[in-house]
Specification:
The complex is a heterotrimer of chains A (498), B (100) and C (624).
Chain A (H helix, E strand, L loop, with lengths): L5 H17 L6 H25 L8 E9 L4 E7 L1 H24 L4 H20 L3 H12 L2 H8 L4 H34 L6 H6 L4 H18 L8 H8 L2 H26 L1 H27 L4 H22 L2 H32 L10 H4 L1 H14 L6 H14 L3 H26 L16 H19 L2 H20 L4
Antiparallel strand pairs in A: 1-2
Helix pairs in contact in A: 1-2, 1-4, 2-3, 2-4, 3-4, 3-11, 3-14, 3-19, 3-20, 4-5, 4-6, 4-11, 5-7, 6-7, 7-9, 7-10, 9-11, 9-12, 10-11, 10-13, 11-12, 11-13, 11-14, 12-13, 12-18, 12-20, 13-14, 13-17, 13-18, 14-16, 14-17, 14-19, 14-20, 16-18, 16-19, 17-19
Chain B lengths: L3 H21 L3 H26 L3 H31 L13
Chain C lengths: L1 H18 L5 H25 L9 E10 L2 E9 L1 H24 L6 H20 L3 H19 L6 H32 L4 H9 L5 H18 L8 H4 L5 H10 L2 H10 L1 H5 L2 H23 L4 H21 L3 H29 L15 H15 L5 H16 L2 H26 L14 H16 L12 H4 L20 H22 L8 H5 L1 H8 L4 H49 L6 H22 L1
Antiparallel strand pairs in C: 1-2
Classes of the chains: A mainly alpha (498), B mainly alpha (100), C mainly alpha (624).
């Protein structure tokens, strides 16, 4: 595969599929689905190949491709992956691959358009994770956010207009701040070095003034933080999850929220080490709101999707805590948690969607005893619930453990609250399992069907398998994340404390 | 001896009359005519400056303006006629379709 | 390598049953039984070698699980006398319970699921026992929690079972909260998770005593949860909702024993933190007494035995708290035999009578002789009558307490022994003798159930001689922690037979038996006489000191109905409605106001435009 542009292929595959889908007729359902499955499996295979082929000993950015785009402005199509990006790309591939199958089962109208937007979105997400050029980073970022609007607005459930409007406004609002930071970096770095460029690595090599770093870190932190979502700018996220169709919720919680954390990690922390030193301790305090507040709000929610939505923002609090540690263990844990949480929430939303599509309600109190009728879904849901509550053997445990170990030295108080947050998570997850799947079965749900066919089961099986594999043998992905985290953390710690 | 100031004063007076007509008269035809007055006041000052500076640029502009004004009047009157046919009025106060 | 096989086989079997042999119930049960019996056979050679080599060198095998810059976590096994004895208890008692379950669970719709969960349970428990480091023990610790959740909630259609499972998991989680923090404290104090290395660091005096006390107390929280000590004991009685063999497994060989085992494993920590030990001892002593008192006022056969377990666990923790790790482990082992016996016996009775109420049984002895006799032997061991196993092990704990000089705790221990004798004799008398109160035709259980009972009763009778003071080397010699090979803390495991302590406890037990027998063997008793004579005390005890009630009304309600609801209110009404929708509303209102300027009057616009030009002109004029 030497010389083959793998990264461009991963981005281009969904875009090519979009163009093909545009020319198909709506009635060609099988062809539409086949193309989507083929594209996403290609992405999955390529990203797993990258995971395997990445040279851990060498580290740094690999599979790099660079094409000058607008030379006078210093814009180039410049892509490459390090350990962190690979983890995120593998995550995205898994989520979109399973998401295509979930949509296969769940989406019944305007199937072709649905896949078009889904694939557009995912192309944007891939692009963000591989971009080494700030402008392309931003373009892909917008490409990832915008398709959400029609996806929720057209295929969503209750309250979808409100949700999609709120989500788009929030994300655009955040994006403006991020753009502000990016442009500032471009001009300031250009003025300092004399060469105006959007090249992240080139800007990253400059030693910018400490006070400037502190100033410009803030809009970047805020801009990407809205997407994380950093409390108190989180309220777009639960309702967005709740209104979106299953596959979109999966991508939204599984991948899109990680874009924010990735932006903070790659751009804010990666390029402004002194800013990171200054601001991240504050983030370590803010994330407690996410963890504690998000968790308790999730506890009082009766709608399963809202519950998972708030739980997501609670879990992203752990990611932020891990990032805020600014040490190897914590940042590694944060990246692994992004991965693990992405897979876990994707599983959660696919399962809830599966039930909702049949029962047309997501309220916990409407259900009881579903385990008798839907044993497969019940087992999968329980695995998801336990993963979410940090049970060993599943990927989230390893990640949370690493975050805690990393954070304990500098932020023992936060760790106490965060560990308590795990109990809160376990409380609402187990309560949900008890309410929905345990207790006496009801007659009115006799009509529900378990996941029996290959297409129905495949996404659940794959996601559970990933959780288990990483949970039992975390080195498979931790080793590679570590190669990306070490230089980043070294760079931050090399800056003298001011 | 007529100096440039005389021309400019004439131009200013015409302009003011035109503006007053545009702002104060309710008949849309008069408003259009007042607009023409404004146009011509500008033309006068352009011609005056052209003579004063001994440059042809101003004169060229004047001729250009007259052409444009002619086209404008043609279109404007055509619109007026069709508005009148539909609304049966030439009072600008009644033509508030674009209101909030 | 055989040790890894020991650990992994139950996991493989569990997964295999879940995925492949789900439909084939016979095969599933044989696989599951096979897994644990093979485990027992792997452990046996180690156990037999032990008396010849009581000071064996610990065998450690490990592989790297996570390795990143600055952190290395291993998964490894540690074989030393402590773990060998625990492995023996788990696999031996586990095997008998598995075999018994085959009969007990016959005809249950979830037969295969049950055995898959049992194997998972055994896997997790073996993991705890074999762990060579704190992270690994925590991993399996949590998996035990998972397995118990699945088994307690086995009858998940029953709301009470679903609640009990949830409660068990969550209460354990609260304990684990302290446990994991304790692990972090130790890691930052010593830089390692490995037991032997941690012990070296502590022995070398690298850790300040304040840190040690903190770490010891935090880690003790884990044991408080798993071994059901006050104040986290509330899950254990509810865990009765699972099938009876599960109760036997939880109470005897796994789960609750895990907490005590973990304390024994980390006893070097407690030896170095005397302040923490005092707290441990008092919590143990208090739990023992409290549970015994509560057991007096229960009438459900499984509940009575459940509270007796709580009481026994209190004893074990007390032993650790007074420095008698060997005594605690010895009691753990004998307790595993007689408690498994009592539970399986109770299961046999329930199987026959279809009720848990002892006041609906009575006069069962002629109907089910084997069960009755084995149950009787188990009870004697439980009460600690000479020369049954419970006598020797309890005696060790009591003399260790006595030697520690804490006479208050010693008195609590003796009192507990007395009360235990009262309620156990009540249980035996009311169930097997007394008046006939059962309905239908109870009959003896099948052989697959009675044979494990007989085997267990043999051990319940004789296991105590492993700690017989005249025997050398006896149990106390080879139960010491991994680091005991270093010669530091092994010493306190030795003990000397104290005749005074033995006679005191014997007097207490015999007194208790006499009292219990004389009260409850009276004819014509339909319900508990204590409820009539001491109504308030009885009610207080029956309601378990109202501890569950306090938790439900205060803690649970506070967090769940109070704090969570308040935050949700803030989220919905203040953040979403007021701030977010409010700002959207403000923008909309401003827009509505500005809209009014669009009058549609051409001349208004022209007027504003002219005015604007004039203003600009004035400004320019002023500037120029």
């Amino acid at each position: 595969m030497e010389g083959f542009p793998i990264i461009s292929a991963i981005i281009a595959a969904p875009l090519v599929a979009v163009i093909i889908l545009l020319f198909l007729k709506d009635e060609m359902l099988w062809l539409v689905r086949a193309i989507s499955v083929a594209t996403t499996s290609l992405c999955l295979v390529l990203s797993l190949y990258m995971l395997w082929a990445y040279d851990k000993a060498k580290g740094g950015y690999q599979f790099v491709e660079r094409i000058e785009w607008v030379k006078s402005l210093g814009i180039s199509y410049y892509v490459g992956v390090d350990g962190i990006s690979i983890a995120m790309i593998v995550l995205t591939s898994f989520v979109i691959f399973t998401g295509v199958f979930v949509s296969w089962v769940g989406v019944k109208q305007r199937v072709r358009e649905h896949y078009i937007f889904l694939l557009l979105l995912v192309a944007g997400v891939f692009g963000v994770f591989v971009s080494l050029d700030l402008l392309f980073f931003y373009l892909f970022y917008e490409l990832a956010v915008i398709p959400m609007y029609p996806l929720i607005g057209i295929w969503g459930s209750a309250n979808r207009e409100y949700a999609t409007m709120k989500l788009t406004l929030y994300l655009s609002f955040g994006a403006v701040f991020a753009l502000l930071g990016i442009l500032s970096l471009y001009f300031v770095a250009g003025a300092q070095s004399g060469v105006y460029t959007f090249d992240m690595l080139a800007i990253g090599k400059l030693s910018l003034e400490r006070s400037y770093q502190i100033k410009v870190f803030l809009p970047l932190l805020f801009g990407f933080g809205v997407l994380v979502p950093l409390a108190p700018f989180h309220s777009w996220s639960p309702i967005g999850h709740a209104a979106a169709p299953s596959a979109v919720s999966m991508l939204h919680a599984g991948v899109l929220m990680k874009l924010g954390a990735y932006g903070i990690l790659r751009i804010a922390m990666g390029m402004l080490p002194a800013g990171a030193q200054f601001w991240m301790p504050y983030v370590a305090v803010l994330c407690l709101i996410n963890i504690f507040y998000g968790g308790l709000v999730a506890m009082s929610r009766k709608d399963m999707k809202f519950m998972i939505g708030y739980s997501s923002s609670s879990h992203m609090g752990y990611v932020l805590l891990g990032l805020a540690t600014l040490n190897y263990i914590g940042v590694n844990g944060a990246v692994l948690l992004m991965f693990a949480h992405g897979i876990m929430t994707a599983l959660a939303f696919s399962l809830i969607g599966f039930i909702y599509d049949q029962a047309h309600t997501r309220m916990m109190y409407d259900f009881s005893g579903l385990a008798k009728k839907l044993p497969f879904v019940a087992v999968a849901f329980a695995i998801m619930g336990f993963a979410s509550s940090g049970l060993p053997g599943l990927a989230n445990f390893v990640a949370e453990l690493m975050v805690f170990i990393g954070a304990f030295k500098d932020y023992p108080f936060q760790v106490v609250i965060a560990v308590f947050g795990i109990i809160v998570t376990a409380t609402y997850m187990l309560r949900c399992i008890r309410d929905v799947f345990f207790r006496e079965p009801q007659d009115k749900w006799d009509g529900l069907k378990d996941a029996t066919t290959f297409v129905e089961r495949l996404p659940f099986v794959i996601l559970i398998a990933v959780l288990l594999v990483v949970g039992f043998y975390p080195s498979i992905i931790v080793d590679i994340i570590n190669t990306g985290v070490v230089p980043l953390v070294d760079k931050i710690n090399a800056v003298p404390h001011g | 001896m007529l100096t440039i100031f005389h021309y400019l004063i004439l131009s200013f007076l015409l302009f003011s009359i035109g503006v007053a007509g545009v702002l104060l008269r309710r008949n849309i035809i008069i408003v259009l005519m007042s607009l023409e007055l404004i146009f011509n006041s500008v033309n006068i000052s352009l011609a005056a400056f052209s003579y004063y500076l001994q440059s042809l640029n101003g004169t060229v502009f004047v001729i250009f303006n007259i052409t444009v004004a002619a086209a404008e009047v043609a279109i404007g009157l055509a619109i007026l006629v069709s508005v009148y046919r539909v609304r049966k009025t030439v009072n600008v106060e009644d033509l508030d379709e674009m209101r909030y | 390598m055989d040790i890894w096989a020991l650990l992994v086989i139950p996991l493989i079997v569990s997964v295999f049953i879940a995925l492949v042999t789900r439909k084939n119930e016979e095969l599933s049960s044989y696989l599951s039984i096979g897994a644990v019996v093979i485990g027992f056979l792997i452990v046996l050679p180690y156990l037999l070698k032990l008396p010849g080599d009581p000071h064996m060198h610990p065998i450690e095998q490990a592989f790297t699980w996570i390795s990143i810059k600055g952190l290395k976590i291993e998964m490894g096994t540690l074989i030393d006398p402590l773990s060998i004895i625990m492995l023996f208890v788990v696999t031996f008692v586990g095997s008998l319970i598995h075999i018994y379950s085959k009969g007990y669970m016959h005809g249950d719709p979830g037969y295969s699921r049950f055995f898959a969960c049992l194997s998972l349970f055994i896997f997790s428990m073996l993991g705890i026992v074999l762990s060579n480091n704190l992270i690994m023990i925590f991993v399996f610790w949590e998996l035990v929690g998972l397995a118990s959740y699945l088994l307690i909630g086995y009858y998940f259609e029953k709301p009470s079972a679903a609640d009990a499972a949830k409660k068990a998991f969550l209460v354990n989680r609260i304990g684990d909260f302290g446990f994991i923090l304790g692990i972090f404290v130790i890691y930052y104090a010593t830089g390692t998770f490995n037991f032997i290395e941690v012990e070296h660091h502590i022995a070398a005096g690298h850790v300040s005593s304040g840190t040690l006390t903190l770490a010891a107390l935090l880690i003790f929280c884990g044991a408080v949860g798993k071994s059901a000590q006050f104040p986290l004991h509330v899950w254990l009685p509810d865990a009765m909702e699972g099938p009876t063999p599960v109760s036997a497994l939880i109470h005897a060989a796994t789960m609750v024993a895990a907490g005590v085992y973990m304390l024994a494993r980390t006893s070097f920590l407690y030896a170095a933190a005397p302040d923490a030990m005092v707290i441990v001892a008092y919590i143990g002593g208090f739990t023992a007494l409290m549970a015994a008192l509560i057991a007096l006022a229960q009438s459900d056969i499984k509940r009575i035995i459940a509270f007796s377990t709580l009481s026994s666990l209190g004893y074990m923790v007390l032993a650790i708290g007074v420095g008698g790790t060997g005594a605690g482990m010895f009691y753990l082992m004998t307790h595993a035999f007689f408690k498994a016996l009592l539970f399986l016996g109770a299961g046999s009775v329930i199987h026959a009578c279809h009720t848990n109420e002892i006041w609906e049984m009575g006069q069962l002895y002629p109907k089910m002789k084997t069960t009755a006799v084995t149950f009787f032997l188990g009870s004697l061991a439980m009460m600690g009558v000479f020369p049954f196993s419970g006598f020797w092990s309890k005696d060790e704990i009591l003399s260790a307490t006595f030697q520690s000089g804490n006479y208050f705790l010693f008195a609590m221990g003796i009192l507990t022994a007395f009360i235990t004798a009262v309620f156990i004799s009540k249980l035996v008398v009311v169930t097997f003798f007394g008046d006939k109160k059962y309905h239908g035709h109870p009959h003896e259980s099948p052989k697959v159930m009675t044979i494990p009972l007989i085997i267990l009763s043999v051990f319940a009778v004789v296991a105590g001689f492993a700690g017989f003071p005249g025997l050398e080397p006896n149990f106390g010699t080879f139960v010491h922690t991994a680091g005991a090979a270093l010669g530091e803390h092994g010493a306190h495991a030795e003990h000397h037979f104290n005749f005074m302590v033995a006679s005191l406890s014997t007097i207490a037990v015999l007194g208790g038996i006499l009292l219990g027998w004389s009260i409850y063997s009276r004819k014509g008793m339909k319900s508990d006489v204590m409820a009539e004579r001491l109504p308030f005390t009885y009610k207080f005890l029956e309601n378990r000191f109202y501890i569950d009630h306090i938790y439900d009304t205060y803690f649970v309600a506070w967090i769940y109905n109070g704090l969570a609801k308040i935050l949700n209110y803030i989220e919905v009404n203040i953040i979403i409605i007021f701030i977010i929708n409010g700002s959207a509303y403000t923008v909309r209102q401003i827009g509505k106001g500005l809209r009014l300027t669009t009058t549609g009057q051409l001349q208004n616009y022209a007027f504003v435009m002219v005015g604007g030009v004039l203003v600009l002109m004035i400004i320019f004029a002023a500037i120029l």
